[in-house]
Specification:
four-stranded mixed sheet, UDP-n-acetylglucosamine1-carboxyvinyl-transferase, Chain, alpha/beta, binds uridine-diphosphate-N-acetylglucosamine
Length: about 425
């Protein structure tokens, strides 16, 4: 398994172009199942382990994809409605093929997913949304088996809690359901707006994406579409934190500053200098900043996908910060690893109390999930000496060209095959 050796303590200085968002690209690739006799052209798809896996899954289902320059073109009808365990178990977002398959072909058999080990992460909300639209769903042999032989019907679906994935599955399915669907308490993440824009380019009728009520008028079929994937706000946020922690100055380009308001607000409160334009942001710091409390919330609140990185930053802040995780029940797996680097962290239920220190100690550490991995990389970059982060296959799931992007800004890091 590969590891990353980091010689830390170097301020990062330079410019990083942000890639397309993993979390937007995954449902967009699943939309390829809905283009019917047409095709879907996607631009700015990041080359990541997870997007490769989603491409493999839609191809397994029968959709062809080809490349035209930087674009990916998905076309053709599904030949199978079964998303098998060996693919789905590698990535939880595979569940996103359920809505498209069910709406377009009246049948979907999707293995119950795996993915990051951050809590139990059930799929009951996805299933309930499909049932509300008239699907018959059974759980058998580790699979969600859903059928809608006469097609799906529009419905009012009220989510008891905000779920990004369940909103996406329901949104895609509702585009081809008969009549009107209303998604109430829908997720408002930028990735939802991106998905809706792509579906509209394919002929879907959607209003309200980005608010907590989305209204969809079902159409008989979708057609050719084209869409460019929204920039990755989590990648941008991770590099913004890297600039602050290393006492550097980074300019982030090809990003949407408005998607990171809650992070930037917390970083400004800490004393980090942040200048934003619509698609760029300059982050600089002398490496000294104050402790700030945060609580993760659905968008536009502080993103859970930046909680681990922000905690790494707070390990080096002046004072004590309180970091509360309200989205996932088991998303502090980076804490013991940060403590191996000398961090002072106490966990009380879903809250971590972090007392900042002047410096951390280099140590071999092990990544346990995607965002935990990058938080350890950030800690390593800010720490003098050599930090070896092992199991970095997690990083490859979500950060395109991480070594070359950071390396071009002065970071000293090298991948080692073990
Ligand atoms: C997506 C993101 C992930 C991010 C998360 C929250 C993708 C591919 N992944 O994950 O990076 O951390 O949003 O912003 O876009 N839940 C249920 N039942 C369900 C579905 C979810 O109880 O059927 C719960 C989850 O356990 C969690 C909460 O709802 O506690 C939010 O999860 P959700 O928004 O669905 O996360 P994902 O879509 O899986």
């Amino acid at each position: 398994m590969d590891s990353l050796k980091i010689q830390g303590g170097v301020p990062l200085i330079g410019e990083i172009a942000i890639s397309g968002a993993k979390n937007a690209a995954l449902p967009l690739l699943a939309c390829g199942l809905m283009a019917g006799t047409g095709s879907l052209r996607l631009g700015n798809v990041p080359d990541l382990a997870d997007t490769r896996l989603m491409k493999a899954l839609v191809r397994h289902l029968g959709v062809e994809w080809s490349e035209d320059g930087e674009d990916i073109i998905l076309s053709g009808e599904a030949q199978s409605y079964v998303a098998p365990y060996d693919l789905v178990s590698q990535m939880r977002a595979s569940i996103l093929v359920m809505g498209p398959l069910l709406a377009r072909y009246g049948e979907a058999q999707v293995s119950l997913p795996g993915g990051c080990a951050i809590g139990t992460r059930p799929v009951d909300l996805h299933i309930r949304a499909m049932q509300k639209m008239g699907a018959i769903v059974e759980l058998a042999d580790g699979y969600v088996q859903a059928r809608a032989p006469k097609g799906l019907s529009g419905a009012k679906i009220e989510f008891p809690l905000v779920s990004v994935g369940a909103t996406e599955n329901a949104l895609m399915a509702a585009c081809l359901a008969k009549g009107q669907t209303q998604l109430v308490n829908a997720a408002k993440e930028p990735e939802i707006i991106d998905l809706a824009a792509c579906l509209v380019s394919m002929g879907a009728k959607i209003e309200g994406a980005g608010s907590d009520v989305i209204t969809i008028e079902g159409v008989d079929s979708l057609h050719n579409g084209a869409h460019s994937v929204v920039p990755d706000r989590v990648e941008a946020g991770s590099y913004a934190i890297a600039a602050a922690m290393t006492g550097g100055a980074l300019t982030l380009t090809n990003m949407h500053s408005s998607h990171l308001e809650s992070l930037f607000e917390a970083m400004r409160q800490a004393g980090v200098s942040i200048n934003t334009q619509e698609n760029t942001a300059q982050i600089s710091s002398d490496g000294r900043y104050q402790a700030v409390d945060i609580e993760t919330q659905p968008h536009p609140g502080f993103p859970t996908d930046l909680q681990a990185q922000f905690m790494a930053m707070m390990c080096l802040a002046e004072g004590r910060s309180k970091i509360s995780e309200t989205i996932f029940e088991n998303r502090f797996m980076h804490v013991p690893e940060l403590m191996r680097m000398g961090a002072d962290i106490t966990i009380e239920g879903r809250t971590a109390l972090v007392t900042g220190k002047a410096s951390l100690l280099s140590a071999p550490v092990m990544a346990t999930d995607l965002r935990a991995s990058v938080c350890l990389v950030l800690a390593g970059l800010a720490t003098k000496g050599e930090t070896e982060v092992s199991r970095i296959y997690h990083l490859d799931r979500g950060y395109a060209d991480l070594e070359s992007k950071l390396g071009a800004c002065g970071a000293k890091l090298v991948r080692v095959a073990n």
